[in-house]
Write a structure and sequence with these properties.
Blueprint: E1 3-8, E2 11-16, H1 19-26, H2 28-39, E3 42-43, H3 44-51, H4 55-67, E4 71-76, E5 79-84, H5 86-102, H6 106-124
Antiparallel strand pairs: 1-2, 3-5, 4-5
Helix pairs in contact: 3-4, 5-6
């Protein structure tokens, strides 16, 4: 975990954010993989077909997501099926909320609240099947 220091309008705000998690989610393809995996488990081949990219490309994206501890895989026969570590997403959401509370900037607070609602909404609707 990286201790991230942010100087915001003369105030020192300290919050524990895992920067590697934010970097992993910053890529559009990885974000799409997370959204798919929130709905159900997929193997590399299924993700490749859904995203329209090669299996090696999906594997590389999954490697980044695994190193950030956002996804986990388990073997089913010949294939590894991946799922989202929902606890990790909730932890990130809580850290962003903490940053929001420590900030006096309401625009930042509103933006993070919207992001948190979006993540919570995805987590709540994860029971849907495709």
């Amino acid at each position: 975990m990286v201790k991230y220091s942010l100087n915001w309008i003369g105030e020192n705000i300290f919050v524990n954010l895992e920067i590697n998690v934010l970097k992993a989610l910053a890529d559009n393809t990885r974000y799409e993989i997370i959204k798919l995996l929130l709905r159900r488990e997929f193997c590399v081949r299924a993700l490749s077909r859904r995203l329209g990219i090669s299996e090696p490309a999906v594997s590389q994206h999954l490697k980044v997501l695994r190193s950030a501890h956002l996804v986990k895989g388990h073997k089913k026969g010949y294939f590894t099926h991946y799922s989202v570590d929902r606890g990790k997403l909730k932890e990130l959401s809580n850290q962003l909320a903490e940053l929001c509370e420590e900030s006096s900037d309401t625009l930042l607070s509103d933006s993070i609240a919207i992001l948190q609602e979006s993540i919570s909404g995805s987590l709540d609707s994860s029971g849907e099947s495709d």
